[in-house]
């Protein structure tokens, strides 16, 4: 009996691999879709502010104002534009030609000599995140200029405390290094669920699933035969995504490849299990694809912590994040890429992924029935 089961399973696996070779859509989902999405999101999504158009209003130009505004001209964060009056700068910001205004009033140099020279900073607050980032950049430029001016004059540091920041794990402060590992988890959520959901739905549409139902193949053998080939394809897509992250986007990988492979395998089983569960209800490719996007991709995108900090969410929203597999995989990937093998983070999240893989695969097995209704 065991020999017969192994023989049937071997035949089913051969059928699946032949079907993959004849229908390249599965290969496209596993390899092409992740590559395209990673390119689009990797280059399109950024939390950095670069080349921000900034209005500089200097009412009384002199050596001091020129020295200060030169800091903006040499900064990679700003693209300054000069205006003669604050009214002109206001109109430019209302027209979204600039994102902020730095205003040096006519008495700037006189107040600077007196020891207090406030500058006016007006920012477009439509995008609150960009406004906070630009505020920090302007404050840093101002502080650096004041300190450099004091050193050039031979006077002591104007502030009693000297801050020397040290940034761990992402010293370049590149949002891409933080976002790309999370993107891999989000993209693998979509491709993993689509691989099994749409492929099985396609078989229902073509009538080949009905042919399987009248054979001696058990439902467990069918599920295993569907799982193994697409697990291999999914892991191949994962390997390609990691290669793109490291060699194309330049994201450092400080952790172990073996740990990354183990965590990816657990996550892929959970994602494929989700697809199998979807296929138990949806027997149409369009429906299966829509359900995969709504139930797997969108919750992962919003609630995984990839883009929005889970700790900043309301408690009522934080609770559902615990049933999102991507939440745990995002934490693992960001830790492995940026910090290394931090076991206090990796092990609990891997345990959660293992539990979710068991749950989804078990649910798919419980719901799947070898019948046509």
Helix content: 55-70%
Rg over C-alpha atoms, rounded to the nearest angstrom: 28 Å
The residue ranges in which pLDDT falls below 50 over 5 or more consecutive positions are none
Mean pLDDT across all residues, rounded?
84
Secondary structure elements and their pairing?
Layout: H1 2-22, H2 25-44, E1 52-58, H3 63-73, E2 78-83, H4 86-94, E3 100-104, H5 108-114, E4 120-123, H6 128-152, H7 175-206, H8 208-213, H9 219-248, H10 257-279, H11 285-303, H12 315-318, H13 325-338, H14 343-367
Parallel strand pairs: 1-2, 1-3
Antiparallel strand pairs: 3-4
Question: What does this entry look like structurally?
Answer:
The mean pLDDT is 84. The protein is built from 14 helices and four strands. Helix 3 (63-73) links the parallel strand 1 and strand 2. The two termini are 28 Å apart. The protein folds into two domains: 2-45 and 175-367; 52-152, abc type-2 transporter like fold, CATH 3.40.1710. Strands 2-1-3-4 form a four-stranded mixed sheet, sandwiched between helices. The radius of gyration is 28 Å and the shape is elongated. Helix content is 66%, strand content 6%. It is mostly helical and 373 residues long.
Relevant terms:
373 residues; mainly alpha; abc type-2 transporter like fold; four-stranded mixed β-sheet; 4 strands; 6% strand; elongated
Structure summarized in a few sentences:
This protein has 373 residues and is mostly helical. It has a four-stranded mixed β-sheet, with helices on both faces.
